[in-house]
């Protein structure tokens, strides 16, 4: 469908059989809600506080998670990012910017945004969101302009708290008290978690009665946050938190983009139930 405007924000509505997806380009290009057979899957915008970090599903670009104290070095130069989650910089710049709609139809939308004044390298991001009767697929890319730059991408979905969650990983990054990975890897202890994992041991699934939601991605890292009663986050990321500072480990920490190069990752939510397709 074409965008529809409320009092202050543009909202794009995608539809498939039994499924509605609302996307808000003005709110960081985020998925504002995904409704499957009448069930809202994502935590809604809080009524009592206007905190863009706490609702929907937003893209993380050009980094994911925290950058320790907002500082990192690249190609021999030191950089200081804006501190938006004291004492750190968190989740990139795309999630609080307005995205421009480039293409839209009943089941897909493509949006772009400049990486903004808070990112010293320039560059741009693009995302394409596609809906079917049983999947929602998100493609997210970062592109360098004239300067080489480090890059990560990812997604931060705030799922309504499921009845059960199958999230099993082989290894977890040890973090310090400031939630910064130390580089050490351990076998995951029992939750609750606010931690980064690698090596999924089984498909990631969230259960809401007879609705089973799967999460897949070509990202190498996953952050799981399950410390709230109302919501749970399962976040695919192309590198770990603080990856710009070369967190040691067996997987990539960030992607180096030369001028005009780009990187892309994808995430797919899929669902199953007796009603799907009806």
Q: What integer is the average pLDDT? A: 92
> Using DSSP, what is the number of strands?
26
Helix content: under 10%
- β-strand percent reads over 45%
Sequence of secondary-structure elements: EEEEEEEEEEEEEEEEEEEEEEEEEE
Structure description:
The protein has 278 residues and is an all-beta fold. The chain has one domain: Distorted Sandwich (Beta-galactosidase, Chain A, domain 5), CATH 2.70.98. Helix content is 0%, strand content 51%. The chain contains no helices and 26 strands. It has an eight-stranded antiparallel sheet, with no helix packed on it. A seven-stranded antiparallel sheet has the order 6-16-24-23-20-18-19, with no helix packed on it. A hairpin with a 2-residue loop joins β4 and β5. It is globular, with a radius of gyration of 18 Å. 41% of the residues are buried. The N terminus is likely disordered.
Key terms for this structure?
mainly beta; Beta-galactosidase, Chain A, domain 5; disordered N terminus; eight-stranded antiparallel beta sheet; 278 residues
Brief rundown of the structure:
By secondary structure, the chain is mainly beta. The chain has a single domain, classed as Beta-galactosidase, Chain A, domain 5, CATH 2.70.98.10. It has strands at 4-5, 10-16, 19-24, 30-36, 39-40, 57-60, 66-67, 71-74, 77-80, 89-90, 100-105, 108-114, 124-131, 135-143, 149-151, 154-160, 164-166, 169-175, 181-186, 194-200, 204-208, 211-217, 221-225, 231-237, 255-257, 262-272.
């Amino acid at each position: 469908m074409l965008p529809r405007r409320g009092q202050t924000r543009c909202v794009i509505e995608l539809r498939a059989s039994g499924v509605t997806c609302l996307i808000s380009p003005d709110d960081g290009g985020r998925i504002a809600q995904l409704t499957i057979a009448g069930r809202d899957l994502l935590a809604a915008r809080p009524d009592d506080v206007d905190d863009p970090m706490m609702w929907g599903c937003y893209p993380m670009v050009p980094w994911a998670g925290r950058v320790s104290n907002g500082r990192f070095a690249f190609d021999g130069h030191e950089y200081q990012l804006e501190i938006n989650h004291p004492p750190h910089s968190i989740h990139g710049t795309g999630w609080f910017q307005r995205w421009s709609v480039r293409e839209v139809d009943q089941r897909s939308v493509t949006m772009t945004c400049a990486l903004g004044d808070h990112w010293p390298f320039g560059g741009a991001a693009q995302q394409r969101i596609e809906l079917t009767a049983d999947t929602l697929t998100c493609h997210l890319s970062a592109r360098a302009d004239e300067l080489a730059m480090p890059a990560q991408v990812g997604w931060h979905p705030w799922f309504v708290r499921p009845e059960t969650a199958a999230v099993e990983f082989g290894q977890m990054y040890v973090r310090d008290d400031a939630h910064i990975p130390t580089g050490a890897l351990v076998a995951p202890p029992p939750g609750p978690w606010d931690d980064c994992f690698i090596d999924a041991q089984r498909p990631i699934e969230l259960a809401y009665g007879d609705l089973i939601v799967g999460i897949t991605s070509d990202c190498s890292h996953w952050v799981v946050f399950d410390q709230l009663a109302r919501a749970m986050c399962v976040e695919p990321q192309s590198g770990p938190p603080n990856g710009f500072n070369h967190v040691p480990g067996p997987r990539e920490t960030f992607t180096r983009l030369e001028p005009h190069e780009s990187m892309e990752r994808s995430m797919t939510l899929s669902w199953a139930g007796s009603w799907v397709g009806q």
